Amino acid sequence: MKNYLLALVLGLAALGAQAVEMEISAKEVYEKVQGNDPGVLFVDVRDPLEIMFTGFTDVVHVNIPYLLADRTRWEDERSIYRLYRNPDFVAQIKAELARRGMKEDAEVITLCRSGSERGKPSAQFLRDNGLPNARYVVNGFQGSPVKDGPQAGLRIVNGWQNSGLPWSAKMTPGKMFRVDK
């Protein structure tokens, strides 16, 4: 029994040692993708309508939303449309991996606006559903808002846009999530 428990503990420790950290900086992701790392899938997990108004980076391999806005349901408390998890999110990620000849232990890196509401939760959700090396871009696409001063509330501190990395107001049609295809 002692040998079994020891083997179990050592096995779990080895698994934990193999897992990658969940957080990754925008610059690190850029370097991985620019270096054509064959074990990386970089996914923008924002609703395409948000991308349309905030910008996009063509460095992303594909847009697969984690949360989508339900434009038929309003949340009075937050003054927003109700958000719901894309029911096909994991299947769509796995299909994209398969399409690219990648295995489920590939490094799937997610990008949202700030890294908190969709980035980290989407990476954790992927890990919980069989993709052990899912990660997210800390501070996301637009970064954190300034807390004080005349620019309070503006997202000009960090994130993809504020790191000097390439982005545009234009979306790349072949990379965007579309319900008509």
UniProtKB/TrEMBL annotation:
Residues 1-19 form the signal peptide. Keywords: Signal. SUPFAM superfamilies: Rhodanese/Cell cycle control phosphatase (SSF52821). InterPro entries: Rhodanese-like_dom, Rhodanese-like_dom_sf. Residues 36-148 form the Rhodanese domain. This is Rhodanese-like domain-containing protein. It comes from Diaphorobacter limosus.
